[in-house]
Amino acid sequence: METQPRERGTGSIYWRGTRLWIKFYDADGRRRYESTGGADESRARRLLNKRLGAVATGEPILGRADRVRYEEAAKALREHYKVSGDRDPAEAEFRLAHLDRFFAHRKLASIGPRDAEEYALGRQNAGASNGTVNRELAVLNRMLRLAYEQGTLVRLPILRKLKENAPRQGFFEREQYEAVRRRLPPDLQVAVAIAYTFGWRMQSEVLALERRQLDLEARTLRLDPGQGKTGQPRLVVLTAELRGLLGEQLERVRALERRTGRVVPFLFPFLSGRRRAAQPRRDFRKSWASACRAAGCPGLLRHDLRRTAVRNLTRAGVPERVAMSLTGHKSRSVFDRYNIVSEADQREAAARLDGFNGDNHGDSRVVGLETRSVKV
Questions:
Q1: Is residue 212 part of a domain?
Q2: Cβ atoms within 10 Å of 83's Cβ, excluding its own
Q3: Structural domain contains residue 243
Q4: 288-314: b or e for each residue (b if 16 or more CB lie within 10 Å)?
Q5: What DSSP string describes 118-187?
Q6: Among 1, 11, 64, 252, which has the highest number of CB atoms less than 10 A from its own CB?
Q7: What average pLDDT does this structure show over 346-370?
Q8: How far apart are CA 124 and CA 136, in angstroms?
Q9: Are residues 207 and 227 in the same domain?
Q10: Per residue in 44-90, pLDDT tens?
């Protein structure tokens, strides 16, 4: 007959059907039950002693760790991102979609380095770059770490990153930018001008802007907290060119309101559905690709506008601290990576060196120094 334990650190072994179970009281005096998975009494005794030892030393009881599946950990990660705001929800879902397909129904404790390598190989075969795979593995690693912190994973596996290619070097010279921009619709010309000037991300920051975020009188444009990738609010003072362009865009939006009889809160709207309700403007990859081809510079990306903005701000002499506040770069290392040196920069450097060497050749002060050195 089993003896009922009542105190912390006591326990017992008993039969339930054909399997042995253990029962013990944890550090808080709560009664805990756990199956041993078989009928081996010595194994049951070792498991009970292990649990009692954990209670005595204050270690967490991880009885469910070997039964937690990927889906449960993925749900916990989604809830964590929602509560903490550590990651943009749409971007996180994009990464998790690929992970979900590969790791579905797996036990979390069984995921290790080899599984990560198989996942990476499959994504590479599907055409994903090493950088993309690394971003997805980072989400998986965060999921595993969160499970470890919450006590549903006993140990953390080591997931190694893939070697990435050198950062993309694409950027726009002024002539290229103008050639592409004038081949876009008027509203997109304004959106591209914002990205070119301040380096704002097109989809999540520029196209999502609402009219309330623009103040033409104060000449400011702002992002709300959580709207940008870093989660920080942002405020920029408009250049004269941008102020004029945004004023024209605002008039187009007001004309749309008069035509439809509907309130349009967005700065870059489009009408959708049977009721033609206003929504933020959607992606324009096809229009962008067509404009680039027509301008004679196919292959340039909209994200190259962000790199160009960093480069232009730096060349214009804007202090890096101020430039980073405009573009929304939180890390100096990432900002430096975007501060690209172009062939035109190198040609300018060569021209400066030519001038410097030429000046030195006929510089009386240098000759005088050389003469004095001979006399000494």
A1: yes
A2: 8
A3: yes
A4: beebbeebebeebbbbbbbbbbbbbbb
A5: HHHHHHHHTT--HHHHHHHHHHHHHHHHHHHHTTS-SS----PPPPPPPPP-----HHHHHHHHTTS-HH
A6: 11
A7: 51
A8: 12
A9: yes
A10: 898 888 888 888 887 666 555 567 889 999 999 999 888 887 777 77
In a domain, 157, yes or no: no
Co-location of 84 and 134 in the same domain: yes
CB neighbour list of residue 329: distance below 8 Å, 6 or more residues apart: 310, 323, 335, 338
Statement to judge: residues 132 and 204 lie in one domain: no
Q: Do 211 and 273 belong to one domain?
A: yes
Residues 186, 77 share a domain: no
Distances (CA, A) of 138 to 161, 273, 365: 8, 38, 60
pLDDT for 343 equals 55
> φ and ψ at 281, to 5 degrees?
-60, 140
Among 182-196, 304-318, 348-362, the minimum mean pLDDT is found in 348-362
Alpha helices, H only, the chain: 41-57, 70-84, 89-103, 113-125, 130-149, 174-181, 186-198, 240-260, 285-294, 303-315, 320-327, 332-338, 343-361, 364-375
User: What is the average pLDDT value for the chain, to the nearest integer?
Assistant: 81
Q: Which residues span the domain enclosing 306? A: 174-338
Residue 75: predicted pLDDT: 92
Q: Is residue 164 part of a domain?
A: no
**14: phi then psi, degrees, rounded to nearest 5:** -150, 165
pTM of the model: 0.56
Measure the CA–CA gap between 308 and 314, rounded to whole angstroms. 10
Rounded-to-integer distance, Cα 93 and Cα 213, Å: 27
Predicted confidence (pLDDT) per residue in 286-311, tens digit: 999 999 999 998 888 888 898 888 88
